[in-house]
Design a protein that fits this description.
Helix content of chain B: 25-40%
GO cellular component, one term (chain A): cytoplasm
Strand order of the largest sheet of chain A: 2-1-5-4-3
Number of strands of chain B: 6
Structural class of chain A: alpha+beta
Oligomer: heterodimer
Radius of gyration of chain A: 15 Å
Largest interface: A-B, 35 and 31 residues
Number of helices of chain A: 4
Shape of chain A: globular
Number of helices of chain B: 6
Radius of gyration of chain B: 21 Å
CATH superfamily of one domain in chain B: Trafficking protein particle complex subunit 3
Pfam families (chain A): Sedlin_N (PF04628)
Order of helices and strands of chain A: EEHEEEHHH
Number of strands of chain A: 5
Distance between the termini of chain A: 12 Å
Order of helices and strands of chain B: HHHHEEEEHEEH
CATH topology of one domain in chain B: Muramoyl-pentapeptide Carboxypeptidase, domain 2
Protein name (chain A): Trafficking protein particle complex subunit 2-like protein
CATH architecture of chain A: 2-Layer Sandwich
CATH class of one domain in chain B: Alpha Beta
Organism (chain A): Jimgerdemannia flammicorona
Strand order of the largest sheet of chain B: 1-4-6-5
Strand content of chain B: 5-15%
Family (chain A): Belongs to the TRAPP small subunits family. Sedlin subfamily.
Distance between the termini of chain B: 49 Å
Shape of chain B: globular
Structural class of chain B: alpha+beta
Amino acid sequence: MNMNIDVNCIAVIGKQNNPLYIKNFSTTHPDLKYHYIAHTSIDVIEERVTQIKTPDVYLGLLYAMEDLAVYGYMTNTRVKFIIVVSVPDAVIKDADMKNLFRRVHTAYIMQVCNPFYNSDSHKPIESRQFSRVIDIIGKTAGGKVTGVGGPDSSA
Amino acid sequence: MDFGHVQINDPNAPAPNQRLSAASSAADSRYTRGKSTLERSLNKTKGAEVSLSAFAFMFSEMLQYAQKRVQGIQDLERKLNEFGYRVGIRMLELLVWRDKNSKRETRVLSVLYFVHTVVWKNLFGKPADSLEKSTENDDECEWLWCGAISKVTWKWGHMVRFDMISDNDPLVSRYISVPKELSQLNCNAFVAGIVEAVLDGCQFYNQQILTPFTPFPLSTPLPSPQPARVTAHTVPIDGFPFRTTILIKLDREILQREELLKP
């Protein structure tokens, strides 16, 4: 499964469009590039959400720029997840992408369920556990390891 | 399984004796369980229930804690509401995540139905007993309080909407007898706080300030939006002396948005 996804960046954006977490997995682009991409995608998400009548959490491909494709996901509490992948030769299946987002969502839920984490504060997430899980998601999305990060991955 | 810290999410991993069998004593299962509550899979609901007596004990401690730090009943209810809010905001995230085909709820009715069934089922093991829409009026809201206590008239000069979720025998206050001098108090303010958090999390604010066209000088911080007002009231009916109604007041902005969203 999801053999062809090469994750370059995973970003989490809070409900008031405050940055919560951003992680760069690529070696080719600087961090700043992904900060910029995350920023831009907020606008695209906002547009997407008002247009689509069915309130699905997965927003699909937001846009592509140069060799990068940006995918979005918005939870019911308006927390946005953004995954930047490098454009592959084969088509990326929505199901694979959904699965990936689901795992990020799982990591976020684990973070939120921590009673000491204040989800209303606008501070970025600094949890070690969270970044470890995100790290694994980013590095294993190429499909080498299964059964990591969420209950769905092994289902 | 070389990633020990994420292994907890694997449903195929052999779960240590999670369900309490009747044969083994409670002490036994405590030691064989092996995983702390914090390490349990978030997706597992079976066997993760807390006993009512444990909850009742904890809740009574919470009440005592709160009571020492407040002045008056309203203050106490506000405090309980705050406690509930902290539970609710996490509940919401978790329940929506557990739901396989989760949706972002945007309509009032669907989110209230979500509270009435999903939230209630997860908290109390059964859906709430009723969900009613009270009144919606432009100018003056005349509201019969379930025909039971009194006739209340609001004159706010703008549109409001009341919804009520009722529970015939609320679990939270089953073992609480409120003393006479606190007769106004309803401990379900805690539940009201949970409902408030769910509505708040789903963007049912009373004051929509996050429109992109609101001009804000950069120096002023954003005012925080007010969550929908949710309160708990005791409304006894025949056979159910402890029947509690969670009253949800939704304000103009939400109703306006509701109009826009109408298909």
